[in-house]
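Duplicate of #3305? Posting structure anyway:
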């Protein structure tokens, strides 16, 4: 289980202290899928980076399976069982996709294992396995390769930041199936940061982050209608911000 207790994150901006996240507390149970959504700039990616250890919390505690991991490095958190796929994945000049998958898995994968992970994100393995994971790959290709690297290892908790971003509809459907499979197996907890209704609908619970705070959190059947309610001014503004996804529902 992941327990987040009173997490806050401040930055210094133009010599002034700015609060990006304020007093965030929630849990993610074993095997649970929590989807985090909310308006642009609300603080979702910042929270993900705090969980992964990329940003250091100003205050609060992060506890994974009873162990306080607040002060652990990125590597130590990865060893503790956290996997993370960035909103905008980094490129690795000089490193092939195969090597990246092996590094992510922590062992040498067989050809068929590599192919399986690439296929599960809709990539034709033979075309990509020996390519460099560098700037010659499109944004959507790199995004899918990064998701494949997270899938290459069993984690306690996987965090995916906007996995839908830049991914074509066909690959997106495959990705949804993969998330559904992981969720069904209940071996890993999942935190998905998303604006996509199809992903939000898969959640056990939904958390809405807005203006650096938890606006609401609860079972999907309770929170989803509040997002889809076109009579709600807030939901409507949010839908317009995101291209009308919710308002058109
Ligand atoms: N290091 C930083 N210095 C200054 N401002 C920051 C820093 N990190 C994040 N912010 C600000 O904090 C806010 C939250 O950013 P964040 O990327 O977490 O939002 P988000 O909810 O993931 O947004 P989106 O839906 O657009 O991806 C934004 O206004 C961003 O500009």
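Output from current build:
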């Amino acid at each position: 289980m992941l327990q987040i207790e009173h997490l806050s994150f401040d930055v210094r901006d133009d010599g002034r202290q700015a609060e990006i996240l304020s007093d965030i507390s929630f849990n993610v149970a074993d095997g649970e899928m929590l989807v985090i959504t909310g308006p642009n700039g609300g603080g979702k990616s910042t929270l993900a980076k705090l969980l992964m250890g990329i940003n250091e919390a100003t205050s609060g505690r992060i506890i994974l399976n009873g162990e306080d991991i607040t002060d652990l490095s990125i590597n130590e958190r990865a060893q503790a069982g956290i996997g993370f796929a960035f909103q905008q994945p980094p490129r690795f000049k000089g490193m092939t996709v195969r090597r990246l998958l092996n590094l992510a898995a922590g062992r040498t994968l067989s050809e068929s294992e590599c192919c399986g992970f690439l296929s599960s994100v809709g990539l034709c393995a033979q075309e990509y396995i020996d390519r460099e994971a560098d700037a010659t790959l499109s944004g959507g290709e790199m995004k899918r390769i990064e998701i494949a690297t997270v899938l290459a290892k069993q984690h306690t908790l996987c965090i995916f930041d906007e996995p839908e971003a830049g991914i074509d509809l066909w690959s997106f459907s495959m990705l949804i199936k993969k998330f559904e499979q992981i969720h069904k197996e209940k071996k890993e907890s999942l935190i998905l940061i998303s604006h996509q209704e199809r992903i939000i609908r898969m959640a056990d619970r939904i958390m809405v982050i807005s203006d650096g705070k938890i606006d609401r959190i609860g079972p999907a059947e309770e929170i989803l209608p509040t997002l889809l309610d076109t009579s709600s001014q807030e939901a409507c503004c949010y839908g317009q911000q995101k291209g009308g996804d919710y308002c058109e529902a």
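Confirmed duplicate; merging threads. The first strand starts at residue 2 and ends at 13. Residues 239-249 have pLDDT under 50 and may be disordered.
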